[in-house]
Each structure stands twice: as structure tokens, then as C-alpha cells.
Design a protein that fits this description.
This protein has helices at residues 2-41, 49-67, 103-115, 124-133, 138-146, and strands at residues 45-47, 74-77, 84-86, 92-95, 156-158. The chain has 159 residues and is mainly alpha-helical.
């Protein structure tokens, strides 16, 4: 009989955990649904492509020269999942949406990619270099960028 009691207790614990998990999953689905609804209700963002591209290219060249970087090619595109990238050949790609970021984050994205010209990984050497360029604020700025990640899920009209 003790064995049967143990099984009954185990089943009760499993049921309790299952109910908790189901409740949590329902909350997550509801939150995501509300966020998606809110995003759909926002007006489309209009971006002047040439103006945004020129602003990004100009600022990238300024920061590169100021800090001694030499990117091979700088491109501006509409990317859906990243703010920028750096290839092993030294080519930089920037999401046109960085033009909508606050100025300090706009510069941070550019400096982040410029630092990859020297260190391709996100290791200690990379963060030390980026910290030197951002007055010790690299990690904080990186966290702040996450708050803007929803921007990439909006609808855009490029002119």
C-alpha cells in the first residue's frame, strides 16, 4: 500500500506542475497576442530612403575616420532581424531602421560594427574595445538596443 500512496502523491505533484505550466503558457500567448495587436494598430512608418542612407553612410565614415577604422564597403539595407553586420572582408551592412533610433543608439550600432573590423567575435577583447569608444557604456547601450528590437517588426514605407 505505501507504494500506491507514493504514486498518488507523485501524480498530484505532476498535475499541479502541469496546471502551473498550462497557466503560464496561456499568459504568454495572451501577452504575445496583445503585443501583436498593438503593433498592427500602429501607423506605418515612412522612411525617406535616400536621406536615411546618406545619414548612415556619412556618420559611419565620420566615426570610422575619428577612431581609425577602414571599412571596405558600407551598405544600407532593410534588414528584418539585425541592426548591422560586418563581414570578414571588412564590409559593413546597416539596417536602414537605425536611422529611426535615438542619436546615442544610432552611433552605438555603427561603433559596434566598426569594432568588428578589429575583433569579429563578441568576446572580452571586443567589449573592451567597444567600451573604450562608448566611455564604458557598451553593455548598457546593448541592453537599451533590445528595447528597440520591436521596431524591426513594424510595417515600413520606403520612399
Amino acid at each position: 500500500m505505501p507504494h500506491k500512496r507514493w504514486i498518488t502523491q507523485a501524480e498530484a505533484v505532476i498535475e499541479e506542475h502541469l496546471q502551473h505550466w498550462l497557466h503560464r503558457q496561456k499568459s504568454i500567448r495572451e501577452r504575445h497576442s496583445a503585443e501583436e495587436s498593438a503593433l498592427r494598430s500602429l501607423p506605418r512608418i515612412s522612411i525617406q530612403r535616400e536621406e536615411a542612407e546618406q545619414r548612415i553612410l556619412t556618420r559611419c565614415r565620420e566615426l570610422a575616420q575619428m577612431h581609425g577604422f577602414q571599412p571596405a564597403i558600407i551598405r544600407v539595407k532593410l534588414l528584418r532581424s539585425r541592426w548591422g553586420s560586418c563581414s570578414v572582408r571588412g564590409n559593413l551592412n546597416f539596417n536602414i531602421l537605425i536611422s529611426l533610433l535615438p542619436p546615442h543608439l544610432f552611433d552605438y550600432v555603427i561603433l559596434h560594427e566598426l569594432c568588428h573590423l578589429k575583433v569579429m567575435s563578441h568576446g572580452k577583447l571586443f567589449w573592451d574595445g567597444l567600451n573604450a569608444l562608448t566611455k564604458g557604456q557598451a553593455r548598457e547601450l546593448n541592453r537599451e538596443m533590445r528595447l528597440h528590437s520591436r521596431l524591426m517588426q513594424r510595417d515600413f514605407v520606403l520612399h
